[in-house]
């Protein structure tokens, strides 16, 4: 049995609470179990994303494949969001001959489904260095069958994405896709996840698989102060009434140290009149207005 551990802490309080928290919110740890003693993965279980369809919950996760000692994406299904999640295969979802991580699913308006992921820099050499590129593909109707090979949608090529060149590596990873007024927004993170310059940008296209054009004023979520380090690898959620958007992302617990010890933060996000994305953060305030139409507990 392998376990995917998902722990959230450090989420900022909300105005209107009877007793605002004196410390960052400490959420209970949940262990999402992949019920398979012979799991194809053996370590580095991370970046799970869970989506719901027809009463079932589908988890897409990253793990290191025993057979090839390489990172891949797996799928597991449960009847409840807290599991147990049962692996659907005794292997990764697909093997295109390279490391793949950070799966994200888009349900399009026409009923078609797409997976976005990162071709990991651990096994991808481009432009004379190790690079992570974002790929996409269409999923079959069962949500677990990959029928075609992924295609490259974007790779590091803007100036702000060159902050980690001294490591001999560059990143476009952690994809998240929104659709608004017929336009697809591919949001992603760039630079080293353990460093201060980890940030979020986006690209747009008229088709879910591109071609995507990067926003000329990227990044849209970036730290400009010493107290906040590495805001990135995010998701986007809506308020209960659907009128507000929030970007949920991580920063380093110790901004001076960086690394893999991180906390979860949340700020408002919106679209400007010209369709560009604006993130109202990262913020340092401990209290923010309650999301629109949400009940105060």
UniProtKB/TrEMBL annotation:
GO BP term, example: xylan catabolic process
Cited InterPro entries: Glyco_hydro_43, Glyco_hydro_beta-prop_sf, Glycosyl_Hydrlase_43_Enz
GO molecular function, one term: hydrolase activity, hydrolyzing O-glycosyl compounds
Any coiled-coil regions, as ranges: none
Site (Important for catalytic activity, responsible for pKa modulation of the active site Glu and correct orientation of both the proton donor and substrate): 102
The keyword Hydrolase is assigned to this record: yes
Domain of life the protein comes from: Bacteria
Keywords of this entry: Carbohydrate metabolism, Glycosidase, Hydrolase, Polysaccharide degradation, Xylan degradation
Keyword Magnesium annotated: no
Start and end residues of each stretch annotated as Disordered: 1-23
Family membership: Belongs to the glycosyl hydrolase 43 family.
Name under which the protein is recorded: Family 43 glycosylhydrolase
Top-level taxonomy: Bacteria, Bacillati, Bacillota, Bacilli, Bacillales
């Amino acid at each position: 049995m392998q376990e995917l551990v998902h722990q959230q802490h450090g989420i900022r309080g909300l105005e209107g609470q009877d007793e605002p928290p004196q410390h960052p919110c400490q959420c209970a740890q949940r262990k999402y179990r992949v019920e398979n003693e012979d799991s194809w993965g053996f370590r580095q279980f991370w970046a799970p994303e869970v989506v719901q369809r027809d009463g079932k919950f589908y988890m897409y996760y990253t793990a290191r494949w025993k057979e090839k000692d390489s990172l891949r994406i797996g799928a597991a299904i449960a009847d409840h969001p807290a599991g147990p999640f049962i692996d659907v295969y005794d292997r990764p979802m697909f093997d295109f001959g390279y490391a793949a991580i950070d799966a994200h699913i888009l349900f399009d308006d026409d009923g078609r489904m797409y997976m976005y992921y990162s071709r990991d820099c651990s096994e991808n050499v481009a432009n004379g260095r190790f690079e992570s590129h974002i790929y996409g593909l269409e999923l079959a109707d069962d949500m677990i069958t990959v029928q075609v090979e992924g295609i490259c949608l974007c790779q590091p090529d803007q100036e702000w994405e060159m902050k980690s060149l001294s490591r001999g590596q560059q990143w476009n990873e952690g994809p998240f896709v929104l659709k608004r007024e017929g336009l697809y927004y591919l949001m992603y993170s760039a630079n080293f996840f353990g460093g201060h310059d980890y940030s979020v940008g986006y690209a747009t296209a008229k088709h879910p698989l591109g071609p995507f054009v990067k926003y000329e004023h990227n990044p849209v979520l970036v730290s400009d102060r010493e107290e906040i380090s590495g805001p990135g690898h995010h998701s986007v959620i809506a308020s209960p009434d659907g009128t507000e958007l929030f970007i949920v992302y991580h920063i380093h617990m110790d901004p001076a140290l960086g690394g893999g010890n991180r906390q979860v933060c949340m700020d408002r996000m919106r679209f400007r009149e010209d369709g560009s994305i604006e993130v109202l953060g990262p913020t340092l305030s401990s209290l923010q207005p309650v999301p629109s139409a949400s009940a105060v507990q």
